Amino acid sequence: MASRIRVGIAGTGSYVPERAVPNAYFEGFLDTSDEWIVQRTGIRERRFAAEDEATSDLCVHAANRALEDAGIGPEDLDLIVVGTLTPDYPLPSAACLIQDRIGAKRAGAFDVAAACTGFMTSLSTGEAFVAAGRARRVLVLGAETLSRFVDFEDRGSAIIFGDGAGAAVLTPHDECGQGEILRTTLGADGSGYDYIHISAGGSRHPPTAQTVEERKHFIQMRGREVFRFAVSHMSEMISEMLDGYDQEELTLVVPHQVNRRIIDAALDRLGMTDEKVMVNIHKYGNTSAATVPVALDEAHREGRIEKGKLVVMVAFGAGLTWGGALVRW
Ligand SMILES: CC(C)(COP(=O)(O)OP(=O)(O)OC[C@H]1O[C@@H](n2cnc3c(N)ncnc32)[C@H](O)[C@@H]1OP(=O)(O)O)[C@@H](O)C(=O)NCCC(=O)NCCS
User: Does residue 215 sit in the same domain as residue 132?
Assistant: First the structure.
């Protein structure tokens, strides 16, 4: 068997839309309050895409920033993989639109459907392609325009979600000399498919006037069940990623920004302190596949990641799905 090529993260980038939507916005039409939302989720505001913006538009900004950070051009890319549950169209993929817009003339392109685990899945896929020598430079993204799929009549879910995009460029580690991906993991339990789902618009219930009338094209979520699943999986995955390594080597945990209370409960279980955890949920809410790459990019640009030390990324979501990665920065 050919030896595995070590893979590094050569650059990161992110983009959030300009329009910031504070909690007070929801007080106008839902029985909720800024106080409830802050206390129960940690969210203070989120970003919503402009009317003429869709997921690929957010991705193009994030991709260009990641390419610039990596110091490579779009024509150098061999592959683009996008984790998203909100592509511009059901057909074709968001990845193809991005490939065209950034001028990645030689690249293959596809989307992966893993909801909030979307970026962990695109990262894992990109890593496997580079490690196997099947691609040299891969752009991986996690991006969403969830504001188009939120049921603004449902206070239990409407207040959680936001829009954004994050990206990373993967190359052989020998080439970039940073961000070596030491391990990744992906998991699924489809028996929980209806914890978070959009029940119509696919092949089981194609769109009809009735499905629209019944609001079945919006996200439906069993928040309390997701909460329980999330706390246990977040702490278990962080432990699994660090297994065999000294916690002293850890520089930062970049968790899915799902709910501040879920992050705190998972940290509590692990006896970890706040300063080693990246949290930006107060600014952006839960942007599903975009939370981890946006937080990673912000941490990287803010100088919060110490070179040579370990970064753990974890996410989970609809499917149910979960995924993690351990990186030596
Ligand atoms: C959705 C979530 C914030 C709800 O918080 P919670 O503490 O679990 O609240 P509960 O669902 O137990 O509801 C408690 C009460 O608050 C009410 N409530 C729910 N949303 C509310 C809101 N926005 N404003 C005010 N009250 C609200 C409920 O109706 C319930 O009232 P009741 O006791 O009279 O029935 C929380 O469960 C969560 O974050 N889950 C994870 C969801 C997620 O991020 N999923 C995305 C995929 S990873």
Answer: no
Shared domain for 173 and 193, answered yes or no, is no
Please state, as a whole number, how many other Cβ atoms lie within 10 Å of the Cβ of residue 79.
24
118 with 49, same domain?
Answer: yes
Q: What whole-number distance in Å separates Cα of residue 309 and Cα of residue 303?
A: 13
- Asked if pLDDT for residue 120 goes beyond 60, the answer is yes
Cis ω on the peptide bond leading into residue 92 (within 30° of 0)? Answer: yes
Best mutation site among 194, 218, 227 for ligand 1, i.e. most ligand atoms within 8 A of its Cβ?
A: 227
For ligand 1, atom 2, the nearest C-alpha belongs to: 223
**How many structural domains comprise the chain?**
2
Q: Is the same domain home to 21 and 129?
A: yes
Give the residue from 162, 177, 192 where a domain finishes.
Answer: 177
Ligand 1 pocket (Cβ < 6 Å) reads: 32, 36-37, 40-41, 116, 155-156, 159-160, 196, 221, 223-224, 226-227, 230, 258-259, 286, 317
Is residue 301 pLDDT above 80, yes or no?
Answer: yes
Q: What is the pLDDT of residue 229?
A: 87
In this prediction the pTM is 0.96
Owning domain of residue 280: 181-328
Catalytic residue among 96, 176, 286, 300: 286
